[in-house]
């Protein structure tokens, strides 16, 4: 169909909005990363690549980068594997009631505001003395763990929390994806004597391809941007900065230290990481499975 | 044959048990939150071994509702979330429709630009956005959280995918009957992409109801806060009062949880749909 006037009326405001609120901020952010920018000063000097040179010498940045990568890689791997297994188990039930009951329960934490769950876990589950986690461990005869007080435990605790809080989305997406695979494929494989693992490896995984690629990419992108739990559940980035990630470092630098030029430089690093992952993913998924 | 059925039943039952065990782990934090919210902070601290409240009390809830402008926060959250959801639904649907059914120059490029914005992390745009909002005089107003959200790339993408499935003949014949572009959009297209609109409504509602980063940057005055920001503020103000923090968390979680349980079927279908396209 053609109607220049209608297309213009719809698209021009939309693109003006995008330029103002997305494209301009990206460009401005890039520009600011070359300035010594502090909103409280009237003159903000151009300092070239100094902010990026500063990154290389900044120990906190290194800690934040390593923590972010560890958090994202470990959480996303566990999330994907666990949600795939849960989806597979849920789909073994024929009754729709059982299926939707489990899907609903696993999705429950996804509807709760992350801040609220962070408060609950930080103040009622993870505390050493009156936290539920240690009470359960003790009841099982195990010794207490200093979940968010011990620098070597902080990230593990946040990963456990994040999996609890976020896995429901992927369980639902994977159960829907599995439902889309024709049942006769499995029946044919059974006739040929395939076992459960073989069916999973040679039918489920390749045929789930598109859903799998989409879910992995979306989960990666969203986990790189996670912030609420790092800001609410642990105090001041945790002991010895053990819970400092790029998002919390950017926030702290920009809005607490007001060092916005440097914060913009860090945010560019985050942007480039996400952009890189997306591009690698796009390339890797050129092969499309049709069924 | 009989043996095989029995074995299958055993397998199915053990899977059920395993899933039930994991399900308990998922629900436990909620139960614990609610149990603690009915205790006094003293009881939580002094007798941590009490699972059920020894002295059942509503003090924590009373404290939250009387010591803080909870209903104002609730109203702020509701206003921002509902406005954002409605605007995003309308904009996404009409833009998705235009990209799906109209021919114009640079269509592919423009659509790629829309999709590309999905990958931009909030942290990259938030500093300049904050400065812009401040310049526009919107800092500390609901507008700071409403105006920047109108165009939602994911929503446009989802609506376009659904519009693609509407047969061209239906629209052509409406056109022959003399229907204008706007009429066709409201009368024909919108009803046909209802499932996408439903899914998107759920998605945007959850996103803005639960958003923490943007309110944290854009709002500073207590009376303007939205619920998630207000909760973190309240928790800092009452660090020592564990019971009040649990009650405040419960008050924030329960409304969304009830909405979710009521529309559970649509939620799950909607979320599943966003992954299928």
Automatic annotation (TrEMBL), chain A:
Entry-linked SUPFAM superfamilies: MetI-like
Superkingdom of source: Bacteria
Claim: Cytoplasm is one of the keywords in the record: no
Segments forming domain ABC transmembrane type-1: 65-281
Coiled-coil blocks: none
Alphabetical list of Gene3D superfamilies matching this protein: MetI-like (1.10.3720.10)
Record key words, sorted: Cell membrane, Membrane, Transmembrane, Transmembrane helix, Transport
Family the UniProt entry places it in: Belongs to the binding-protein-dependent transport system permease family.
Record's protein name: Carbohydrate ABC transporter membrane protein 1 (CUT1 family)
Source species: Breznakia blatticola
UniProtKB/TrEMBL annotation, chain B:
Main location, first listed in the record: membrane
Pfam families named in the record: BPD_transp_1
SUPFAM superfamilies registered for this protein in UniProt: MetI-like
Organism annotation: Breznakia blatticola
A biological-process GO annotation: transmembrane transport
Protein name: Carbohydrate ABC transporter membrane protein 2 (CUT1 family)
Family membership: Belongs to the binding-protein-dependent transport system permease family.
GO cellular component: plasma membrane
Alphabetical keyword list: Cell membrane, Membrane, Transmembrane, Transmembrane helix, Transport
Membrane topology: Multi-pass membrane protein
InterPro entries documented for this protein: MetI-like (IPR000515), MetI-like_sf (IPR035906)
Location(s) in or outside the cell: Cell membrane
Domain ABC transmembrane type-1 residue range list: 74-263
rRNA processing in keyword set: no
Regions crossing the membrane: 12-35, 78-99, 111-133, 145-163, 184-209, 242-263
């Amino acid at each position: 169909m053609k109607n220049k006037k209608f297309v213009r009326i719809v698209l021009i405001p939309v693109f003006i909005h995008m330029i103002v609120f997305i494209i301009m901020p990206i460009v401005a952010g890039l520009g600011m990363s070359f300035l010594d920018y502090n909103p409280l000063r009237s003159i903000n000097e151009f300092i070239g690549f100094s902010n990026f040179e500063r990154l290389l010498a900044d120990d906190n940045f290194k800690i934040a980068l390593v923590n972010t990568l560890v958090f994202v890689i470990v959480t996303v791997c566990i999330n994907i594997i666990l949600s795939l297994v849960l989806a597979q188990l849920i789909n073994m039930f024929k009754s729709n009631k059982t299926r939707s009951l489990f899907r609903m329960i696993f999705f429950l934490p996804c509807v709760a505001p992350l801040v609220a769950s962070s408060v609950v876990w930080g103040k009622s589950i993870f505390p050493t003395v009156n936290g539920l986690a240690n009470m359960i461990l003790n009841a099982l005869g195990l010794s207490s763990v200093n979940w968010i007080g011990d620098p070597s435990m902080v990230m593990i605790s946040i990963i456990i929390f994040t999996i609890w809080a976020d896995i429901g989305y992927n369980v639902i997406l994977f159960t829907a994806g599995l439902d889309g695979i024709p049942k006769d494929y499995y029946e044919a494989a059974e006739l040929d004597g395939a076992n459960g693992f073989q069916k999973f490896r040679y039918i489920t995984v390749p045929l789930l391809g598109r859903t799998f690629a989409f879910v992995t990419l979306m989960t990666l992108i969203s986990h790189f941007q996670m912030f609420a739990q790092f800001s609410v559940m642990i105090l001041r980035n945790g002991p010895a900065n053990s819970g400092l990630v790029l998002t919390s470092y950017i926030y702290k630098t920009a809005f607490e230290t007001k060092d916005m030029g440097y914060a913009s430089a860090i945010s560019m690093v985050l942007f480039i990481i996400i952009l890189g992952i997306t591009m690698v993913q796009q390339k890797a998924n050129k092969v499309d499975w049709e069924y | 044959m009989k043996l095989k059925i029995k074995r299958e039943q055993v397998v199915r039952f053990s899977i059920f048990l395993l899933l039930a065990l994991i399900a308990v782990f998922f629900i436990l934090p909620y139960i614990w939150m609610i149990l603690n919210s009915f205790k006094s902070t003293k009881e939580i601290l002094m007798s941590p071994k009490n699972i059920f409240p020894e002295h059942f009390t509503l003090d924590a809830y009373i404290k939250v509702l009387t010591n803080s402008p909870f209903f104002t926060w609730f109203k702020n959250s509701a206003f921002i979330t509902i406005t954002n959801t409605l605007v995003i639904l309308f904009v996404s649907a009409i833009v998705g429709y235009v990209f799906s059914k109209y021919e114009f120059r640079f269509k592919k490029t423009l659509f790629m630009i829309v999709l590309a914005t999905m990958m931009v992390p909030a942290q990259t745009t938030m500093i300049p956005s904050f400065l812009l909002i401040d310049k526009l005089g919107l800092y500390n107003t609901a507008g700071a959280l409403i105006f920047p959200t109108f165009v939602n790339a994911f929503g446009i993408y989802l609506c376009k995918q659904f519009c693609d499935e509407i047969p061209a003949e239906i629209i052509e014949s409406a056109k022959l009957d003399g229907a204008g572009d706007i009429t066709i959009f409201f009368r024909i297209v919108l009803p046909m992409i209802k499932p996408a609109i439903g899914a998107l409504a759920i998605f945007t509602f959850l996103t803005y109801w639960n958003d923490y980063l943007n309110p944290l940057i854009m709002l500073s005055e207590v009376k303007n806060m939205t619920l998630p920001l207000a909760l973190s503020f309240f928790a800092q103000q009452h660090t020592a009062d564990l019971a009040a923090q649990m009650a405040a968390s419960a008050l924030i979680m329960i409304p969304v949880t009830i909405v979710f349980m009521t529309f559970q079927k649509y939620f799950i279908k909607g979320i599943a749909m966003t992954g299928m396209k």
